[in-house]
User: Fold this.
Amino acid sequence: MTSWKNKLVGAIATGAIVAGLFPVAALGADPALDGKISVSGLTQGDTAVYYKIVEQDPATKAWKLTAAVDDGGDGKIDGSEYTISDLMVSGEDKQVITPDIANAISVALSANKASSTDMGTASEGGVVEKTIAAATDGYSADAGVYMVVATPSANNKNVVYKPVFVSADFDSEDKTDTLALVPDGTTYKPVGDNSIFKESPVTIDKESGTEADKQNDVAVGDVVDFKITVPLVTYTKNFTDAKFKVTDDLTTGLILSKADGSAAVATDINVAVMMGDDPITAVRDRDYKVTINSERQFVVEFLGDDLTKDGGQDGFLYQAANNGATVEITYKAKVTSDAALQVNQMDNTATLNFSNNPSDTTGVGELKDKTRHYTFDIDGNVFGKIDEIGPEGTKTSELRKVGIDAAGNIIQQETTSEQIKEGSKPSGAKYSWLQGAEFELTMVKKHIGTEAGTGGFEDCTPEVIKFDANGLRVATGGGNAKSDANGYIPMKGLDAGVYELKEVKAPLGYAFNPNIKYTITITPTYVAEPDGTTNDGKTGGGDLILSQYEVKIETPKLDDNQQEATPKQTVTTVSTYKAGQDSSGNPISFLNDGGTKNNDASIEFVQSGDPENKGTALITNKKLGLLPATGGSGIFFYLAIGGAIAGVSFYLMKKDDRSEAAE
Assistant:
């Protein structure tokens, strides 16, 4: 076979890989009867046209190629070496329309500017039909072979159909010349005058993270890995300007980056053509083009010519597509400080646009897939505001700073408007919240998740987290978390994981124990997105979506001197945030496509823990009374050192007096 024939392998007319064409055989009808040819497998509203490629000679009643594919009448499909004998068999032999023959037919139709004939719009059952005129004296103008091409409707634009072939055979004698068109490698089963359309395998799959960690939960400053996988498709010359491109859109909170978090350029978007697990040669700007439109969007485009039989330089993409190659697009994105909302969801959507019929020059075929990424807060504001969502309309607070007196009692005052969650102390007095305390937050375990569920935690190199003045985590710079005027210790933009919190500076006039640590665990629960989910073009759903997350705080009990109580005791408080649900009980995504807030989304808040404190973990500092205040860890350490120095001085003075008396 000549080299150009080697290129004629793959899908035709509709841009899909032809793994094999559906079988069609002789109608075998009585020449005196008329009938129909029909094609099924479409969606209601789809349309179809046909090209007649084999017909009977009126004079000899023999089969011949039509002018649509053989305008010179030399008995060969134009532009190829294939003849009518490649479409005919005798007796019980079976012939095959191979992909290269099918492509030769399609190219000839395009070169000859053959006109198609409307076959109609698919009915509710997805069927289109053509009536076949009866034969007279062994001849029928309708007898022959037809290639049928379908166009998806506007409501079915995310599919591409393979072309199919049907035949109407009115052999007037012993029926030994049979139009038997069957796919390679399949068992022969006559289907006569009907065939079935099959949707082409056009898909898109977007993933984040690694096999060990899908990185659904992230933190400000994290750099996340992404991979988009799509199958390459082929087009024939009747697609005059085919489109095939992938657009990736990041929502607020993510920007394209290098591994070190710096801004990405086009060469940081890696495109590999893969044959199975092995990359094969592709040349940027020749086989494909990468364009970064903004820090949140890029496009990878394969030009139609590069995916056609005669285009694409050396025909690399066409050959690769016909051999089942896929495209893997990998890149990185950094989580920015824009991810500042409690339960912040960042959707990252990849869209595949492709031509799905020969007249489509804009790529109306469309498939989408997304990944979701979440950051979490401690003492944050749901959806960026303080929601009154407690049982009594009180504010959410997992952790608050409060002062105690010398006897260990919580200091109360009537002037503070803020209350502990679910109400005040029985006396009706409010707690006195402390402002200005500083806390060091250290991540000690990272959350790992690869599938639906709560995942697990793995030890990591301890990392001290820093925050800006508003309590939002920062990647560089920043300082320790601080309590505000209402005692809140806001810590926003956090990854799920296990953290240790310890106080490093008390407010002026209060003392603390720098050795006391508080353990905080943020645990998300993910579920698989249900099939057919709106705003997601991925067939079958399956992407992970946040169902709920939990903030658990383990607070050690302290005695009156701010030491751990004996025996050791721990108070555990748990705040659970549940995503709203739709009518089927499935979690509602917090964001719509495009990053806008989903107004149907809500959060159900449930809190449990120490009954006395109504579920809020309190970090207490002891008031220093009338002694001079130094802030920080208090004056007791300095008093002890001063007393020791005084004692030593007194001892040395006495010793010196005794020495003088002895003299």
